[in-house]
Amino acid sequence: MRLIKLGLLGYLLGMSTWAAADTAPSFIQNMAGCFSVRFNFVENGDHDAFYQPVLERADLSQADAVWHLRRYLVIEGSEQIHWREEWRLKDAANEVWEQTVYGPFEDFRYQCSGMLVDNSWRCEAPKAPKPRRDQNQPYETLDRENTLKFNPKRWIHMQKNDKRMADGSLFAVELGWNQYDRTDAASCQARSRR
């Protein structure tokens, strides 16, 4: 009986994810699926970071009026939680959407709102916590400026991050370009899910 209940629960969760994918706004649908991702950050020559392409799977679900994208890095056939984001429509007349981002341990990263215009979305998030990649740098917070551009084949995350010291002075300015190219869904199947 327990196996039947677990099977039913899995079926219902699958239906919820399937329904969410079918009814989500197209820009959110464009960020769900399997992607080959390139993360690039330029700062001052000493702290630049160019990562080898990695696979990332983004699962889409919906609860009430909130769309959830949970992202997993797929490395050598295993997956690890990368980050999670929530999207809420704040102003339907002006297509204003709010994004809230959480790290892999459900740690709050940032929240910002912006207008969706021509498959592009832009927002500013002052005083965001510094990312894990910078934990050894002496600054305290980021003033983030994010621009996202979506289409069915790929989406781009452009960043301008002003890194601030505790007194508010500027430590450095970082520019980021993260490119998510859609790839075959089978590429993102972790061993445990095959």
Main attributes?
Lipocalin; 2 helices; globular; disordered N terminus
Q: Can you tell me the CATH superfamily?
A: Calycin beta-barrel core domain
Q: What percent of residues are in strands?
A: over 45%
- Gross CATH architecture: Beta Barrel
**Radius of gyration, taken over Cα atoms and rounded to an integer in Å:** 18 Å
Major sheet summary line = 10 strands, antiparallel, barrel
Q: What integer is the average pLDDT?
A: 88
- Record field, number of beta strands: 11
Tell me the number of helical segments per DSSP (H or I, 4 or more residues long).
Answer: 2
CATH topology-level name: Lipocalin
Low-confidence stretches: 1-18
Fraction of residues in helix: 10-25%
Shape: globular
**Oligomeric state of the chains present here:** single chain
Structural class: mainly beta
CATH level 1 name: Mainly Beta
The count of domains is 1
Order of helices and strands: HHEEEEEEEEEEE
First-last Cα distance: 25 Å
Topology:
Elements lengths: L1 H22 L2 H4 L3 E10 L6 E2 L3 E10 L2 E10 L2 E14 L4 E7 L5 E10 L2 E10 L11 E10 L3 E11 L5 E13 L12
Antiparallel strand pairs: 1-2, 1-3, 1-11, 3-4, 4-5, 5-6, 6-7, 7-8, 8-9, 9-10, 10-11
What features would you describe in this structure?
The chain is mostly beta strands and 194 residues long. The chain has one domain (2-193): Beta Barrel (Lipocalin), CATH 2.40.128.20. 13% of the residues lie in helices and 55% in strands. It has a 10-stranded antiparallel barrel. β4 (66-75) and β5 form a beta hairpin. It is globular.
